[in-house]
Write a structure and sequence with these properties.
Length: 499
């Protein structure tokens, strides 16, 4: 059997350095491709933003779909798989799936990922272009999944799937399968070999799952904070050694990004891993995402000595009130002190820090927004050239506690949903407010605040150091063009592509 795995990316350009995250390999798709190959399937991978470019206009978008259709028409895949998060990709994936079924009606289309897991029944009711949805991690059920198709498609015996049979939608038993990720095969990066020269870094994982339960997070919605598995340091370093040898032959760099929802959650493990990585003399650079309250100065120094050059932190807000509502902390005063100290420590240790802020969470007001701006001002002051704040609007993702409590937020704050299930209708749903946070703050004021704060950040922060820390192009005027990075120079322009 032969499978095609597709990373669609967003429909149009993304603003800010966030768009550059497209230039990291997709850990989820590589993991799925690896386990499929492990069980004997032939697997191909299409990275749509690199293979076809990123459109900036509707005409370019339509042209890209035509080129995709032409390639699919002459393909011979048994399965075509998509991984979906709740955001700009969803409606885009359905358009690609529609083309796949129109050109190859007998090819099975499969969707997985966070969004597909949470609203699987809804997706199957909304579209006929998806044949199967895998709910949760694929590796534990992969062998049964493949055997089912070899034995006349007996998917009813495979847990955690939902599929169509004779016009009916059938759900199998939903199980939270706990497993040791040390038992999984090492990533097969040959899957993405043709795209390596266009990627900033390779995504790998040191752990899977998260022990925290933030109110707004889809990780807790999918796994409920009940699953966490970490690779043994020696196993992980052996992986990095193998990956380094492979990619160095192709592109020369040895740069990785850990996609763990919360890297270094076990501090003893973090210290052991960093010390062993230093001792390995592999000379790699890497980045990760973690919480600001997980790292001391000594730990950050150790991480830098082990090759860490950038860290992602979800600061989310500078308001004590909002931090409590989000479930980020029970001690917001300490949290905010740490938010400034963390940026300062990062700069002192030559580590760049990418901080995200979630504007417009239920209960937000102009006063709480100003508190966030005050925090960002202080962070830029202590971390200039090493700190970049990303300003994103809150979206009530399905399955999260916040999404389930929207009626209560309406009663308490006057929160109103402007567009239900925005990912069904918008190709740029992350770029505009989708709720009115409170009676005191409407969407237009929230949008104006975000835009003004972005302009202020651009004038204050140059971020060439920030961009270069995770392999982004440095031949860009970041002060003038920070928001125009959706199609950076290492991606092919649309008019250069031949199909």
């Amino acid at each position: 059997m032969k499978a095609l795995l597709i990373r669609t990316g967003p429909s149009f350009e993304l603003p800010e350095l966030y768009g550059l995250l497209l230039l990291h390999s997709s850990s989820a798709i590589v993991a799925v491709g690896t386990i499929l190959k492990h069980y004997g399937m032939d697997v191909d991978y299409w990275h749509i933003p690199i293979k076809f470019g990123i459109p900036t206009t509707q005409n370019e978008y339509d042209e890209r779909l035509k080129k995709f259709r032409k390639l699919v028409k002459y393909s011979d895949y048994d399965f075509i798989g998509f991984s979906c998060i709740s955001g700009d990709e969803y409606i885009h994936i359905l358009e690609f799936a529609k083309i796949c079924k129109e050109e190859k009606p007998d090819t099975i289309t499969v969707m997985g990922g966070y969004h597909a897991t949470i609203v699987s029944q809804e997706i199957m009711n909304d579209t006929t272009y998806i044949d199967i949805i895998v709910r949760g991690d694929f590796e534990p059920i992969c062998e049964k999944f493949i055997i089912a198709f070899k034995n006349h498609n007996l998917l009813k015996d495979v847990p955690n799937v939902i599929f169509r049979r004779n016009g009916k939608i059938i759900e199998t038993q939903r199980l939270l399968i706990k497993y040791d990720i040390n038992s999984l095969p090492k990533y097969d990066f040959s899957l993405i070999g043709e795209y390596l020269s266009s990627l900033c870094s390779l995504s790998i994982e040191g752990s899977r799952g998260c022990k925290f339960k933030c109110e707004y997070c889809t990780e807790s919605a999918v796994r409920g904070g009940h699953f966490w598995s970490v690779k043994k340091p020696d196993r992980l370093i052996d992986e990095i050694k193998n990956y380094s040898s492979f990619i160095e032959k192709h592109v020369g760099y040895k740069r990785f990004f850990f996609v763990d929802p919360l890297f270094g959650i076990d501090r003893k493990w973090l210290n052991d891993f960093c010390k062993k990585l230093i001792g390995s003399n592999l000379d790699v650079t890497w980045g990760c995402e973690t919480r600001l309250d997980r790292l001391s100065n000594d730990e950050m120094k150790l991480m830098r000595n082990a090759g860490c050059t950038f860290i992602f932190h979800g600061f989310e807000s500078g308001s004590p009130k909002m931090l409590k509502l989000m479930g980020k902390t029970n001690n917001p005063e300490k949290y905010l002190r740490d938010a400034i100290e963390t940026v300062k420590m990062a700069k002192e240790n030559d580590i760049c820090l990418f901080g995200s802020y979630m504007l417009g969470y239920p209960g937000e007001t102009m006063d709480t927004l100003q508190e966030t701006k005050n925090l960002i001002e202080k962070q830029i002051e202590v971390g200039r050239d090493y700190f970049y704040p990303s300003l994103l609007f809150f979206i009530p993702y399905p399955g999260t506690h916040t999404h389930l409590e929207l009626n209560e937020f309406y009663k308490k704050f006057g929160t109103k949903v402007l567009v239900d299930d925005i990912w069904k209708y918008s190709k740029t749903c992350l770029q505009n407010p989708v709720i009115q946070p409170s009676k005191e703050l409407d969407a237009s004021c929230l949008l104006k605040f975000r835009d003004e704060l972005r302009r202020w950040v651009k004038n204050k922060n140059y971020n060439v150091k920030m961009a270069s820390s995770f392999g982004a192009p440095t031949n860009i005027d970041y002060k003038a063009d920070l928001i125009e990075l959706g199609n950076p120079c290492c991606l092919p322009p649309l008019n250069s592509l031949k199909v």
